[in-house]
What does this fold into?
Amino acid sequence: MTLVVAVPPSKRPTSPRFGRVAAGTTKASLLKRAASPSKSASPKESPEASPKESLESKVPRRRIERQPVRLSADGRVDFPAYFVHGRKVDQRRFVAQAAITWLTVQKKRGACGAIMVDIDDTLIDGHQCVQNGFQFMQELYATAGLDYPIHVVTARPDSDHASAMRMLSQRGFCIPTDRLHMLPAHLWGKETSHVERFKWQTYLTIGRMHQGVVARFGDMLWDVAHVDTLHTTLKHVHDRDCYVFLDPALGDTLSCKLPGAE
It folds into this structure.
């Protein structure tokens, strides 16, 4: 599937320019390549893929039949943005494979920065299991971690830090203690505005630490979007949607919203 997008040359980020890369290749061409994962990100087909087998073939699970996804451009915004339609398992597969392609190209172009990822309904399902498409996110996590530092940012309360570290480790998501960022316990269960501010401020902090944020992943819009767009420009994006976009206000950060819980 080919995705062709265009970024107006006059656009300039209104917040720190994260994930800066050398000149020469446009964001549009990168997103086009990332949207064709079957030729560039598949471990079986790409000569640049990791030598290890695909996680799907290594783990003894029921084989998931692949079905195509459909992309539709979001005409309500003036930057490259696409809804990904299909089964949730296929949406997660698409996002994971497209992101691997994007990150591989960014690394070759000399992009610096980190990766920011949520936990619930992003790395694991509601039963804290890695199945039904979450294994593709696990593969993305392992592959991306070879090139970029990963920070896990969750709205779980920080009083559960030790148990969250243990759970992630048991499911194959290795993370240094200081790269697991959790909502202050006294804010847990209160207004969602606290979560929005926490996610945004953590994004800015991570960007300063690593000279950029190359990509963000989460099932909620606040995991991946500019805080000022949550109730304005992107208020039409629902929790259930799978949505991939490049907002110039975030510099060169690829934003991947996975389908949320129904």
The CA atoms of residues 131 and 150 lie 21 Å apart. The chain has a mean pLDDT of 83. The two ends are 27 Å apart (CA to CA).
